[in-house]
Design a protein that fits this description.
The longest helix is centred in the first third of the chain and has 33 residues. It is built from seven helices and three strands, in the order ααβααββααα. Strands 1-3-2 form a three-stranded antiparallel β-sheet. Helix content is 64%, strand content 8%. Helix 2 packs across helix 4 and helix 3 crosses helix 4. The radius of gyration is 19 Å and the shape is elongated. The mean pLDDT is 88. It is mainly α.
Amino acid sequence: MTDKHDSHSRDLLISIRKITRAIDLHSKDLKKKFGLTIPQLVILQEVKNSKEISVTDLSKTIDLSQATVTDIVNRLVKNELISKKKSDKDKRMVVIQPLPKGLALLDQAPPPLQKTFSQRFSGLENWEQLMLISALNRIVSLMSAEEIDAAPILTSDPEI
């Protein structure tokens, strides 16, 4: 019986490793080809979709801390992919807008890995979605990782 359990454990660990490796490869490819991290791509896409958005609203929309979003936004501003300006509606508020260079980059960049995953996942039957969520939550528990804070962004970037 132990050999069978060891085999199952090994198969599960291999699957987990494949998932982390897929995320890492996607992240490295994006950085190499487009000079963007996955969080930068997610923010750039959300700014494009919103046309104009505050850092606070952006952090809520993508489920990252305001400090993290501010840091990423500043890097995107420095690279001239987005701009920050005072809102026309409320001069106390700073809004972020896409710049032509950022829009052009988005036209070439692939969608974030979590978008592709989400589209495929939503195509599954509800019972299968719930089964996968339950199984992964159990794995999180087995790894004693319940207290780890994580955004719904598939990245190998340790900063988010």
